[in-house]
Amino acid sequence: MNEHAAHTYKQQQVNTASPAKMVFMLYEKILSRLQEAQSAIERKDIQARCNANSNAQELIAHLSKTLDMDQGGEIAFNLEQLYSHCLIRLMDVDRHNDPQAAEEVIGLLRPIRDSWYVLSEKSEGELRQAIMAVQQGRPAAQPTGERKSAGDETPAPAKSTLSISA
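and the corresponding C-alpha cells:
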C-alpha cells in the first residue's frame, strides 16, 4: 500500500472513531512509541529514542490535560496521578537511556488500553443500558448467552455520578 493510501486510511479511522475508540487509539500510539524507544535504545539510536519517547510524553500529557476532574471524581484523580508518574519515569528513558523505565510505563498503561478496547467494542446502546442500570442501582444486562443461574447472585454496583453523553 502506498504512503498516501495508508495516510488516508488512518485519517478515515480517526474521523469515524467513537470517543472510546479514540482514547484506545491514543493508548495504542503511546505503547507503540514506547516500544520504538526501547528498540532505539537497543540499536543505540539516540535520536530515534528521543523522538519516540518525546512523542509518548506528549500523548500522555494530552490525556492528562483532557481529564474532566469535575465529573471524573476519584477515577480522574487517580489517572492524573498515574500520568504524572509515567511522565516522571519517561524522563529516565532519556536521562539514563533506560529501557526499564519505558517497560514500567508500558506495564502500567497496557491494562488501561485493554479496558478502553473492550469499551470501544461495545455498541452505544449497550453502553447507555449499562450506565442506566448502574445509575438505577441494578446490575447491567448481560450479553446474550451469559444468563445468570439462580445461584449466581451478584450485588448491584454502587451508584455512580459519572455520566457519559454523546
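(Above: one complete record from the training split.) The CA atoms of residues 95 and 114 lie 29 Å apart.
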